[in-house]
Amino acid sequence: MATPFLSLNHIAFHVTNGVALLQKLVNKFQFHLFAMRITETAQQFAVKKGAAIFVVNEKPKSGVATAQQWALWQANRLGLNQECTDLSCIPFNDALPRACPELDLLYDICPSCSVDTASNVSFEVEDVGSLCKQLHAHGCQILIPPTEIHDDSGCVIYSVIKSIVGNISHTLIDRSRYKGEFLPGFQVIDSPAIPSGLTEITHFDHVTYACPQGSSTQILKWYEKCFGFQRFQLHQEESAEGGFVISDDGIGLRLSAMQYWKCSKMALTLVAPSKVPDCRFVLAESLPGQGRNQVDTFLEQHGGAGIQHVALYTPDIIATARAFYCAGVQFVTPPPAYYTEPGKEEEIRAVGQDLQLLSQLGVLLDTDVSNKGEGRGCRGMVENRRHLMQIFTKPIFSEETFFLELIQRQGASGFGEGNIRALWHAVQAFIDQKEHVQSS
Ligand SMILES: O=C(O)C(=O)Cc1ccc(O)cc1
Ligand SMILES: [Fe+2]
């Protein structure tokens, strides 16, 4: 099946204290608050930087709706008999967790997750109705059936479907008949000039899911069947069945990745749409019998699978990381040996970067040779000039769950093994130290 997606629209959080997360995103990560929706029962904030949009939803104090409340609410929405409280009479109604009618949340459902979480990835699509029909036929749970919302700037149709991964849901939005800045129901905040600051983020590079052991193959198949995603080789040594496995040096990690091709509205009308991958999805699972590790810590503290991190693309990682540091963002520290590994200095120098600068900030640099022959503008370049740089924040919430990544790619479309190892050790050192402090 060809991908029905135009592009990623936003990623949404559900947290107990919406204003606290909003402040963190605005003051530390220098996102711009551009739209919000405050009602008696809901608080939703939209922030952006470049094309990267986060929606912060504050969780209701009252909890999740009862089955009966939900059925009535759905019946009401669909114009069915108000007395209809039998769930089976409503199309697409077998879904759990349920949307909270008393919460009056738009474009999302509140996930059944007791801790703060990033749980929704929302895509722009061309035709919500027919996509939902297809998904329903595939056995996909539809949490909110296609719903139309208007305001003065036009209308959108959206639907929310449940992913097979943990608490993740996907909102599908057709905003082709909407002229406003974000989505109907949100009040756009006037600001004459959006300050760009010293930091630049252009888009979401990838989203990494923490998955239970042995689940990746099924997840890949589900996204392929439902959304037309394709497997993407994140490392040259990856196998088709097992993904990319690292199982030494205290690491027990299996990674695999998938992507879809972004379509511009223009491209849809052409015979051969231009092939540009949009945000990619990385699946991370731990390996059996390898001891404590960050993926299992995530699953435990999050209460199941979910979004472990989101990578923000920056064209200048040094400037952005430095500005984030100054604003109080905390990053995990790479293992000290990372920068003194044999050949690291040469590797860094060969691509014109400064070892001192990278190590002061904790930015990782790795070369990636997995994209041979992809023709992404790097033909003729010396192989080792394709590189990527990454840096990872400490967890954003009080649990060791969700964190953010900054990434800058120079011709490298995959991931470097050295960086994955360093990330693993950096995150692990942070978790172990936190647990040590808590137990002493
Ligand atoms: O390197 C990256 O940015 C990844 O996304 C791969 C990855 C995913 C999960 C981990 O716990 C460690 C590494
Ligand atoms: Fe990542």
Question: Would you kindly provide a written description of the structure presented here, covering whatever features stand out?
Answer:
It is globular and about 60 Å long. It contains ten helices and 20 strands. Strand 2 and strand 3 form a beta hairpin. The protein has two domains: 5-60 and 103-188, 2,3-Dihydroxybiphenyl 1,2-Dioxygenase, domain 1 (Roll); 203-266 and 274-370 and 383-439, 2,3-Dihydroxybiphenyl 1,2-Dioxygenase, domain 1 (Roll), CATH 3.10.180.10. It is of the alpha+beta class and 440 residues long. The strands form three sheets. Strands 6-7-8-5-1-4-3-2-9 form a nine-stranded mixed β-sheet. Strands 10, 11, 12, 13, 16, 17, 18, 19 and 20 form a nine-stranded mixed β-sheet that branches. A two-stranded antiparallel ribbon has the order 14-15. Residues 80-102 and 370-384 have low confidence and may be disordered. The protein binds 3-(4-hydroxy-phenyl)pyruvic acid (ENO) and fe (ii) ion. Fe (ii) ion binds next to strand 10 and strand 17.
Summarize the structure.
The protein is built from ten helices and 20 strands. The protein is of the alpha+beta class.
